[in-house]
Prior knowledge:
Number of strands: 19
Distance between the termini: 12 Å
Number of helices: 13
Bound molecules: guanosine-5'-diphosphate, 6-O-phosphoryl inosine monophosphate, magnesium ion
Low-confidence stretches: 1-5
Amino acid sequence: MANKPSNITAIVGAQWGDEGKGKITDFFAGEADFVVRFHGGNNAGHTVIVDGDIYKLHLIPSGVLYEHPVSVIGNGVVVDPAALIKEINYLRDKGVEPKLKISDRAHVIMPYHIEMDVALTKHQGSLAAGSTKRGIAPVYADKMYRHGIRIIDITESDIFREKLDKAFSFNQTLIKAFGHSSTLNKEEIFDQYIKYGETLKPYISDTSVDLYNAHKKGSAILFEGAQGISLDVDHGVYPHTTSSNTVAGHIASGTGVSFRDISRIIGVAKAYLSRVGQSPLPTELNGQEAETLRDKGSEYGTTTGRPRRVGWLDLVQVRQAVRTNGLTEIALTKLDILSGFSELPICHAYNVGGKQITEMPASLSQYRKAKPIYETLPGWGNLTSDMIDKGFKALPNTLQQYVKYIEDQVDCPITIISMGPQRHETIIR
Ligand code: GDP
Ligand code: IMO
Ligand code: MG
């Protein structure tokens, strides 16, 4: 069957996040036994539409809408227990009972991380990323400082108290040093998080062992990335990034499943570009052109509701995604949104101070100066559901040309074409 995943498949973002990973994950999840998040937290917002019903997921993998697969939150994910419990209840209200496992080693987002996130963003000013204010940078920082609190800890009151004492005072000191006042009370946090621990206990497991055993038995595992390559803390446009590695190589450390076993790595790229948050954006559109594309593509954040910045497709960015992730293929989404444009510019290189470059620069100063070099391709008219049913060859020639141009530029096959938000609006080549 065309959409049957090989044993272990990964789906990752090839741009700035919001490429449609949720839709593509859902498309493949019906054939998977486990669908697994390996990094990030509820900064992610993945929209899945099934039979006209809209589901907005932040922490629970997009496979949850099928009855069969187990949803796994790996150790590399950072978990806000209040947000997770809210999401479990949200799904229950919609008639979905999540089959969930949470890694005992996943780090916990605490209320002081959210306060710190706000303080940090103000302090960082022009170097901020425009965070989602979900506490992501501070929780990953505490993990690296080695006074972080893991899910297992909120089920063990003695060690939790010992760790909370250290982490609370550390964060309070910093928050106050930034000139912010805090109303947080350590004892209240302790009591609240012990309650969260009791609620989440049935789901907590050593998920690395679970996945290892499942893989040995031949189970199909699907990894769902969050964010995208330009938000990767190492390979992205640092410091305008998130604080985790979004790159597929992080699956191994973020779940305890060896990368040796991953056979298929699908990068999801939107046929144009969107960005929520702060950073230079070489192909950004402004004014009426931007508004038209934003409204047509409904480009408003799933997590924060912020209007997304939009621009033309940037292949310098996608080229980096192909290389660093080792993509075996690309899923190109939202081609339907580009219908009706007479011409479609695609950026294939940057001009930086008179020099042409084809790879993402490490230098923020160069990236700020980068001017897009475009190839302009002809557009196409309206697409019909009949074309989707008949497959790729029935699509307008100019659309096929657009797809082939991308493949040539980034040296990776585009095997999945998404022409609408619903499961069936998908073409496999
Ligand atoms: P994610 O974070 O990568 O999962 O992406 P989001 O869910 O935040 O944003 C993608 C949006 O585009 C969602 O509202 C999807 O329902 C929608 N979407 C995904 N693929 C397509 C497509 O091919 N066409 C259209 N029109 N919408 C799509
Ligand atoms: P999904 O999984 C788009 C952006 C924020 C900000 C930067 C850092 O839906 O694709 P953070 O809160 O992580 O410290 O914010 O990263 N960002 C995203 N942008 N989609 C996401 O997730 C994002 N998660 C974080 O806007 O610029
Ligand atoms: Mg999103």
